[in-house]
Amino acid sequence: MTLRENLKKIIPTPVLDFARQSRDSMGRAGQYPQAYLHPWRRESITRIRGMKDIHKGQRCFIIGNGPSLKNTDLSKLRGEFTFGMNRIYLMFPELGFETSYYVAVNDLVVEQCAADIQALKMPRFVSWRARKWLRPDDHLNFLFTTYTGPTFQRNITARLWESATVTYVALQTAFYLGFETVILIGVDHSFVTQGKPNTTIVSEGDDPNHFAPGYFGKGFRWQLPDLDTSELGYHLARRAYEQAGRKVLDATVGGKLTVFEKVEYLSLFK
């Protein structure tokens, strides 16, 4: 038995949790000066503040990238407010329109798709870490996102927790923009590829986990999903929306997520 395992047996769980949280907080503290004082972030913060509650009382769709999108009539979304994430732009030519907003926070996605993301024209929200690969423009907004410190952030000019899924960052962003009803589609919450969560792997062929074979196609580096951590974030999101008198609905066709109220997709357009 290792020293760490022995300590876990000896030290009470609350003490271990406190020590872990303190260590994480100290690690994040070193990121704060640049995350708030760097000119690029300050420009983003000013621009983001101007978006506060601009969609108050309205609804939006957060579009995941699962295979279920192939069984979803996305033409219904023309004229709706939408959030696209990661490589959703691969679908734009087929859709005939672009999403209203775009969100990407995963380092591997941003690094490998930087040119594509930079070329998009809609308001985009990316992790502050993305400054390694992206340059500021009038519609690129840097968010200070971190891997630790679970919370639902109502003010996205401050630190956001990622909850191991870009969908959670989109939920926090939609809340800040004032949307009253947020509808998830394409959030299948299931993956064919299995393995230790958060492990980086290299795709060896067509991608069975997303709407297009080339989404994470051969040679693309990506991280295996952490569905448990994602669910923790979804529960926080549901509580935050409900406390504010708002709601998140799940209209994913055949989705495995059970946190949010299910609704039949086509019924939303009657």
Keywords for this entry:
two-stranded parallel ribbon, globular, 8 helices, single chain
Describe this structure in a few short sentences.
The protein has helices spanning 3-10, 13-29, 32-37, 39-49, 92-95, 107-119, 166-176, 227-243, and strands spanning 59-63, 81-85, 101-104, 124-127, 140-143, 145-146, 160-161, 181-185, 200-202, 221-223, 247-250, 261-262. With 270 residues, it is of the alpha/beta class.
H-E order: HHHHEEHEHEEEEHEEEHEE
| Rg (C-alpha, Å) | 19 Å
Form type: globular
- Report the average pLDDT across residues: 92
Taking the sheet with the most strands, its summary is:
8 strands, parallel
Low-confidence stretches: 13-20
N- to C-terminal distance: 61 Å
Portion in helices: 25-40%
Domain unit count:
1
Write out the strand line-up for the largest beta sheet, numbering strands in chain order.
5-4-3-2-1-8-11-12
Total beta strands:
12
Q: Helical element count?
A: 8
Question: Which percent range describes the beta-strand content?
Answer: 15-25%
Structural class: alpha/beta
